[in-house]
């Protein structure tokens, strides 16, 4: 390789690195991050929740259930694997909800995939093939390692590794990822959520108790969940006491 070719090769490599860094910056910026002085992304904006009542005649969405299926209160989590606020809810707020309500049989979480971009769509398609006993392990892995696969140029390989850890071999996982019918069904369910519940982004939550349906758009804190759940539990207790 002569000097001129060497310069061209080095220039091309530098250009590729710059493009990658810019792409990573746009990705993180869209998720609400800036890069901190130590090289660690820092969240600088917070999604805010707002509320809307939903007609009780609208059919509830399907999803995988965490907790007792007969729990009186259901929290439907519309979530995308590439969404930072979704990861924040699932890895932190949900852990408190599990301790205070889900493990006591008062609340169940229904995870409803709402993929917003191609990588999350691939992961969602694989997740559809994972057995119930491993499903939330896979979900946790996706959220815990969001930066790793989200910023990788080999995200498909990383997601396939997570699938292997949760019961699928590579052939099965690839088959699930390339299943056009499954993709169409996921997209149709996402569109139904948009039409029926007014969802335009993630995370969004539907709190359902009997005929009481309330949508919350945006990130939720544990205190907000506690207030909504406790109010419904207290109403149930009061109605029972009056009988």
Major sheet description: 6 strands, mixed
Question: What does the overall shape look like?
Answer: globular
CATH topology of the largest domain, by name, is Glutaredoxin
Residue share in helix: 40-55%
| CATH hierarchy class name of the largest domain | Alpha Beta
Q: How many discrete domains?
A: 2
Poorly predicted parts: 10-48
Number of strands: 8
CATH superfamily of the largest domain: Glutaredoxin
User: Which architecture of the largest domain does the CATH hierarchy give at level 2?
Assistant: 3-Layer(aba) Sandwich
Terminal CA distance reads 89 Å
Q: Spatial order of the strands in the main sheet?
A: 3-8-7-5-6-4
Strand content: 15-25%
Count of DSSP H/I helices = 9
What would the average pLDDT be, to the nearest integer?
83
Query: Which class best fits the helix and strand makeup?
Result: alpha+beta
Q: What letter string, H or E per element, gives the SSE order?
A: HEEEEEHEHHHHHHEEH
Instruction: From the alpha carbons, calculate the radius of gyration and give it in angstroms.
Output: 21 Å
Q: How does this model look, in words?
A:
With 243 residues, this protein is an alpha+beta fold. The chain folds into two domains: 3-42, no CATH class; 46-242, Glutaredoxin (3-Layer(aba) Sandwich). The protein has helices at residues 3-30, 84-102, 118-127, 132-144, 146-150, 155-164, 170-177, 180-197, 222-242; strands spanning 33-35, 41-43, 50-53, 64-66, 73-79, 107-113, 204-209, 212-217. It has a six-stranded mixed beta sheet with strand order 3-8-7-5-6-4, sandwiched between helices. A two-stranded antiparallel ribbon has the order 1-2. β5 (73-79), α2 (84-102) and β6 (107-113) form a beta-alpha-beta unit. It starts with a helix and ends with a helix.
């Amino acid at each position: 390789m002569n000097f001129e070719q060497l310069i061209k090769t080095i220039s091309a490599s530098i250009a590729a690195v710059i493009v990658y860094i810019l792409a990573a910056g746009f990705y993180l910026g869209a998720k609400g991050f800036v890069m901190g002085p130590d090289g660690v992304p820092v969240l600088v904006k917070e999604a805010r929740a707002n509320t809307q009542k939903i007609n009780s005649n609208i059919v509830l969405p399907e999803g995988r259930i965490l907790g007792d299926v007969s729990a009186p209160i259901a929290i439907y989590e519309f979530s995308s694997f590439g969404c930072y606020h979704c990861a924040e809810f699932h890895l932190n707020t949900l852990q408190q909800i599990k301790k205070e309500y889900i493990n006591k049989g008062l609340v169940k979480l229904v995870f409803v995939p709402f993929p917003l971009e191609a990588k999350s769509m691939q992961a969602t398609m694989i997740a559809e093939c994972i057995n119930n006993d491993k499903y939330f392990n896979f979900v946790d892995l996706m959220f815990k390692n969001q930066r790793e696969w989200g910023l990788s140029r080999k995200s498909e390989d990383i997601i396939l590794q997570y699938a292997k850890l949760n019961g699928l071999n590579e052939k099965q996982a690839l088959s699930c990822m390339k299943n056009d019918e499954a993709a169409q069904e996921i997209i149709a369910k996402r569109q139904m959520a948009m039409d029926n519940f007014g969802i335009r982004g993630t995370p969004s939550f539907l709190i359902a108790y009997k005929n009481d349906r309330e949508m919350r758009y945006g990130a939720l804190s544990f205190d907000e969940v506690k207030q909504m759940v406790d109010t419904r539990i207290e109403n149930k207790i009061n109605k029972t006491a009056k009988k």
